[in-house]
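[retry 2/3] Ectoine hydroxylase: previous attempt timed out, resubmitting with same input.
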Amino acid sequence: MTATLPTTVPDEYPTRKRPTPSLIFRRDPVVWSTAAAGPIDAETLESYDRNGFLGVDQLLTDAEVATYSAELDRLAADPAVRADERTVVEKSSNEVRSIFEVHKISELVARLVADERVVGRARQILGTDVYVHQSRINYKPGFGGGSFYWHSDFETWHAEDGMPAMRACSISIALTENYAQNGCLMIMPGSHRTFVSCVGETPAEHYKQSLKEQEIGTPDQDSLRLLANKHGIEQFTGRAGSAVMFDCNCMHGSNGNITPWPRSNIFVVFNSVDNTPVDPFAAPDRRPPFIASRDFTPVP
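[retry 2/3] Ectoine hydroxylase: success.
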C-alpha cells in the first residue's frame, strides 16, 4: 500500500530552521496501548515509558543467531549486494558498514521482521498496525569500525522524511557479543521526552554524506551536556541473540571499535500506520525509499 498523503500538517518539532538550538518538550505519548495488547508486561511497559527503551536478554536462540550470522556474512560477501546503492561502506577501511532495506534483500530477515517476538512488541508499544520505515544490517568490524555520534533518529526522520509524530520505535538485535569496549549502543535514559531542535540547513541529497558521517542534524554540545547530566548514559552489553527496543526520540550513539571483536546487528524501524510521512519538514527533497520507505503496507 503506497499512499499519497497531505503535506500540510502542523510541525510540532521544528528543527534546522533557526540560528540557535532549542529544547522542546515531547507532545506525544510514548506507549500507546496496554499490557493486555501484546507480549510486554505492565512493569516493562512502565519502564519503557519512563526510560525510552527495553531489553530482551534472549530474543533469538543460539541456532537462530548462527543462521542470521551466516546470512549477514553471505550478504557482505556478495559482489552484487556490495555494488548496490543500499550498501554503505566505512570511510576509512572501505569495509561494509550497513546494508539498507535488508528485509527486501533477504527472505530470512523478512521472516524475522514479521516474527511476533519482534513486530508484536512494536504493535503493542505503538498501539496500531505497523510498517517498516527502515531496515538495515549494521557491521562494526574489529580494528576500525566507525562511531555513530549522538543523535535522535526522530530528528532526521522528521526533518528529512516527513514523519509527523513520535510514534515509531526501533529494535536492534545483536548477532555478536556486545561488550562495553567494542562500540556498544549507548542511550541517555529519559532523553526521549525532550526534542533537541538542531541548527544547520539540510543540503540536497544530504543522505549520501550523512550515512557515512552525519553533521547536519546532530545536537549541540550544550544540549547533550544538559541531557547527559540529567539522565546519565546507559551502555547495552549482552550476548548474541539479545535485543534492545527503543523510542524514536532517544538520544543515542556508539563509540568506534578498535578492539579485535566485531559487532553486528539487525536493525528495524517500525512506524505506526497512523503516522505515515508527509513531505519533509526541513529538507529540500525526500530521502530514497530504501532509507525511508513510502510503502506503508502493514507487517503481516
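[retry 2/3] Ectoine hydroxylase: Residues 2-6 have pLDDT under 50 and may be disordered.
[retry 2/3] clearing retry counter.
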